[in-house]
């Protein structure tokens, strides 16, 4: 699988190790994706650069209204963080649905993004939140929208043989905003979903001021249903407008036939149901209805 296994102590040392091995070394975090891919010979990496002993990458914190999540934060930590549950419950729900407890205890949110699958649960919520990622390269650090990291199924624009994502950030949901995550899977544990969706809405006087709807896997990357969201703008967030938006999202989604996930027709019609459910819950959370709490 690999010949060498290294433990850098800093981000700079990680980048040096990667550069030294000229494309033959790759970052590993929880290893829940990479160890399997490497075992199957799908991802060549002679040297593994394990970032889990680097201090200062396990933070979940809020600064100036933005929530920052470090590269070593696991799905279990995301799902249970009081800060994320209060300020981005949609993400807590998404990470809480990943695999089983063992996977959530080691798999990281950032690894979920870099693995770049259009069905990734945590990544879907980050799309709905309009998150950004900090990329560390030998030339310096830069922030980029999460959407810019996706180049196709399993293809991340940040090459983990050369660069590293150190953290992600997004604006915490405020009063009048709500989000929700919905998922359809054959079994609850240990499998990527048949479909998932993450939505965030902002209401003003009962009308939709902003909406973002992310759906997977219905394209080669997480799909943002822009037309469906735009159709909601300025409208009362009621059953009729939500059903209409869900229908538009379903029309725009292009799921493929899959032996594991079902026919394209079935999944297309299920998109409408999942989006409707998610929007309904997000609107309830944004309205501060009892029993909902900022979508957690
Ligand atoms: C049994 C099982 C069930 C699963 N179920 C689900 C599920 O329900 N939903 C779901 O979304 N996923 C699921 N997964 C996938 C997996 O757990 C997640 O994608 C996980 O979040 C990956 O994180 P990791 O830390 O393990 O990444 P790793 O496996 O360590 O790395 C994944 C990729 O990211 C790169 N990488 C990791 N960290 C960084 C970084 N900081 N900077 C740059 N590159 C980096 C690696 O080089 C590699 O290419 C499942 C996996 C298994 C094995």
Features:
single chain, 296 residues, alpha+beta, Uridine Diphospho-n-acetylenolpyruvylglucosamine Reductase, domain 2, Uridine Diphospho-n-acetylenolpyruvylglucosamine Reductase, domain 3, Enolase-like, domain 1, 3 domains, 5-stranded antiparallel β-sheet, 11 helices, 34% helix, 25% strand, disordered C terminus, binds flavin-adenine dinucleotide
Short description:
The protein is built from 11 helices and 14 strands. It has 296 residues and is an alpha+beta fold.
Question: Can you walk through the features of this model?
Answer:
The structure is a single chain. The strands form 4 sheets. A 5-stranded antiparallel β-sheet has the order 4-5-10-6-7. A 4-stranded antiparallel β-sheet has the order 11-12-13-14. The protein has 11 helices and 14 strands. The longest helix has 23 residues, at 264-286. It has helices spanning 11-20, 34-39, 75-80, 82-87, 89-96, 101-106, 109-114, 121-128, 226-232, 239-252, 264-286, and strands at 4-6, 25-28, 47-50, 60-63, 66-70, 132-137, 140-145, 150-152, 155-156, 164-171, 177-184, 195-204, 207-216, 223-224. Helix content is 34%, strand content 25%. It has 3 domains: 4-52, Uridine Diphospho-n-acetylenolpyruvylglucosamine Reductase, domain 2 (2-Layer Sandwich); 60-171, Uridine Diphospho-n-acetylenolpyruvylglucosamine Reductase, domain 3 (2-Layer Sandwich), CATH 3.30.465; 177-286, CO dehydrogenase flavoprotein, C-terminal domain (Enolase-like, domain 1), CATH 3.30.390.50. It starts with a strand and ends in a 10-residue tail after the last helix. It is globular, with a radius of gyration of 19 Å. Residues 291-296 have low confidence and may be disordered. With 296 residues, the protein is of the alpha+beta class. The site of flavin-adenine dinucleotide (FAD) has 31 residues, from strand 2, helix 2, helix 7, helix 8 and strand 10.
């Amino acid at each position: 699988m690999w010949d060498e296994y290294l433990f850098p102590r800093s981000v700079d040392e990680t980048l040096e190790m990667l550069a030294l091995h000229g494309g033959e070394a790759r970052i590993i975090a929880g290893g829940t994706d990479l160890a399997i891919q490497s075992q199957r010979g799908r991802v060549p990496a002679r040297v593994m650069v394990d970032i889990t002993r680097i201090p200062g990458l396990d933070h979940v914190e809020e600064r100036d209204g933005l929530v920052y999540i470090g590269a070593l934060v696991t799905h279990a930590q995301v799902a249970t963080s009081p800060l994320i549950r209060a300020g981005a419950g949609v993400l807590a729900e998404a990470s809480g649905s990943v695999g089983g407890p063992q996977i959530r205890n080691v798999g990281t949110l950032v690894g979920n993004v870099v693995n770049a699958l259009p069905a990734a649960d945590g990544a879907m919520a980050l799309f709905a939140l309009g998150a950004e990622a900090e990329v560390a390269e030998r030339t310096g650090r830069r922030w980029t929208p999460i959407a810019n990291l996706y180049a196709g199924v399993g293809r991340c624009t940040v090459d983990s043989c050369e660069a590293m994502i150190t953290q992600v950030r997004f604006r915490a949901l405020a009063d009048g905003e709500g989000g929700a995550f919905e998922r359809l899977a054959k079994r609850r544990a240990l499998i990527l979903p048949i479909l998932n969706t993450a939505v965030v809405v902002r209401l003003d006087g009962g009308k939709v001021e902003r909406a973002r709807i992310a759906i997977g896997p219905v394209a080669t990357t997480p799909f943002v249903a822009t037309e469906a969201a735009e159709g909601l703008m300025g409208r009362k967030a009621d059953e009729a407008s939500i059903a209409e938006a869900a229908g538009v999202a379903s029309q725009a989604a292009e799921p493929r036939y899959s032996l594991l996930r079902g026919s394209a027709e079935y999944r297309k019609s299920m998109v409408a149901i999942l989006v409707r459910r998610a929007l309904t819950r997000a609107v309830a959370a944004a309205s501060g209805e009892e029993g909902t709490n900022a979508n957690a």
